[in-house]
Amino acid sequence: MTLLDKEGVKKAEKSLKEFDPNQNIIILNSSARTALEAAESLNCDKGAIVKSLLFKTENTFILCLIAGDKKASLNKIKKELNIKDCSMATAEEVKDVTGYTIGGVSPLGHLNKIDIYVDNSLKRFNALFAAAGHPHCVFKTNFKDLLKITNGSIREIIE
Length: 159
Fold this sequence. Notes:
The chain is α/β, with parallel strands linked by helices. The protein has five helices and eight strands. The longest helix has 13 residues, at 7-19.
């Protein structure tokens, strides 16, 4: 069994291929569990790694896609959404809501419909890399396609 046979990777690949049949999952020899590990494995800038971070709000969950060299701002997220309460989701919530485990959370192919907010600073890079359902699997995209494939909206969500 290869990594491409893993359930999470198959979900991410299915969504990716529905968007663009020519897209492929990239299998890495080393882990991409963190943005730094991914950047080292891919020999790219840490900022070109798309971090998929799930937040729990007062009544729902949101997924924020953040550049690997940036940090999400809870205050800005609360301000953008006009809410009082927002926190990082637990590992169990991440698995239940997205279907992925932390370290391999893809921006696509989720178990449940989630609103997705995209950090505008990702626009700096021609090529972006996002998790594809496993810490050793990613896919390559660009800012415009990331917005399209995730149906994400650009928000001011970083520190």
